[in-house]
Amino acid sequence: MNLRPASHLILGMVRLGARSGYAIKGAADASTRFFWPMSLAQVYPELGRLEDAGLIARSEDPQGRRERNAYSLTPEGEDALLRWMRSPQEAETQFRDEGILRLFFADALPREDQLALVRRLRDRARLAREQTEAEIIPLADALKAEGIEFPARIARLRADSHAAAEHWLAALEDELAT
Amino acid sequence: MNLRPASHLILGMVRLGARSGYAIKGAADASTRFFWPMSLAQVYPELGRLEDAGLIARSEDPQGRRERNAYSLTPEGEDALLRWMRSPQEAETQFRDEGILRLFFADALPREDQLALVRRLRDRARLAREQTEAEIIPLADALKAEGIEFPARIARLRADSHAAAEHWLAALEDELAT
DNA sequence: ATCTTCATGTAATAAGTTACATGATTAA
DNA sequence: TTAATCATGTAACTTATTACATGAAGAT
User: Fold this and answer.
1) Of A48, B45, B61, B71, which has the most beta carbons under 10 Å away?
2) What whole-number distance in Å separates Cα of residue A73 and Cα of residue A24?
3) Structurally, what CATH architecture does the domain formed by A5-86 represent?
4) In chain A, what are the domain boundaries?
């Protein structure tokens, strides 16, 4: 079985304590979604594959009449996760941003529209930073109390990156306004 | 016909003077690929659709016995491009980075392996910055001589972002090393 | 001569999203 | 009692990539 990044993401979330598929998806939405998005429709088939491969163990854990599965890492799963983290092979980072794409072609626009575009992008960066600070960082900080430190570091990186984008766009705005 | 980002990317490249499908792909590889990747297999069908929609005009422009098409923007194509640049609707930015995903789970690793991972990511950021400075910025600067300024701004943004990542990773390395 | 680049296009495959389908539990 | 959340899964669709197929022009 060849494991993809989403497989390791799931292994990692199980290791951090997410037990059901739904919980794994929720944990990913609050943290890793910004640098590795994953939909719920990916989670369930992948959990099946990981179980077949012996990397996670499933036990039934119903909540009243509502069915629920509780997954945990097997020793092989833990090995696979650590091996992946040490491995240098990785998918090329991929980044898609329609806003920056617009800005690339902005020479075609009159100054006024260039400014409007830059302002929109700046607002977008501000919103992303604010959301990270208000919603993502507090969740990551809660993990820090349990000795899990990297999620908070990465949430901070995200906030800092958006802050840097805000500054860059503000400087561009000033340059275009003169 | 509903236009996707790749459609507008092609319109934009045609506007900047790329005439053949091959040339469009080449121009995109030297600039927009970092924030909107596009494969050659997307270009040709998309050119057909844009031509059918009357947004670009095709003329035959063979090079000896080798066939070649030369595309140019129609007034409708120019309109569509400018409308898109002014429009606030956009696909959610998406970012996928297996390296950062690893770092998110790095609490599971011993300190030594954490450091090795951070160093690898730092090298990767340095390489990306160096490549941008050596290959991408000079190409964008050449456009500046023709009065096209935004590509150079965005190439600089890319270099700066990777430089910031390098610094952030260097600081993390120091923190982990103590 | 031979390799790289230029040039166009299609077919097969992979990956991932949205929509569909269902139903229990909990909070307002 | 109504809405939101928890929970699992499948089917249809979209999007994009890799591989295939072909061949001329230009550089070494």
Assistant:
1) B71
2) 13
3) Orthogonal Bundle (1.10)
4) 5-86, 98-177
Confidence of residue B178 (pLDDT cuts 50, 70, 90): confident
Helix, coil or strand: residue A59: strand
Q: Is the pLDDT of residue A156 over 80?
A: yes
B19: helix, strand or coil: coil
Residue of B nearest to A97 (CA): B93
Strand D contact at CB of residue B6, distance < 7 A? yes
Beta strands in B5-125 (DSSP E): 56-60, 69-73, 94-96
* Cβ contact A58 with chain D strand, < 7 A: no
Answer whether A100 sits within 8 Å of B151, measured CB to CB: no
- The answer to pTM > 0.90 is yes
Pick from B85, B100, B149: CB nearest A102: B85
How far apart CA A30 and CA A136 sit, in angstroms, is 6
Identify the sign of the CA torsion B119, B121, B125, B131.
positive
Give the nearest partner residue to A99 out of B81, B93, B116, using CB atoms: B93
CA gap B101, B120 in Å, rounded? 13
Per residue, the 3-state secondary structure of A73-101, as one string, reads ECHHHHHHHHHHHHCCCCCCCEEECHHHH
The predicted pLDDT at position A127 comes to 96
B41-87, pLDDT tens digit by residue? 999 999 999 999 999 999 999 999 999 999 999 999 999 999 999 99
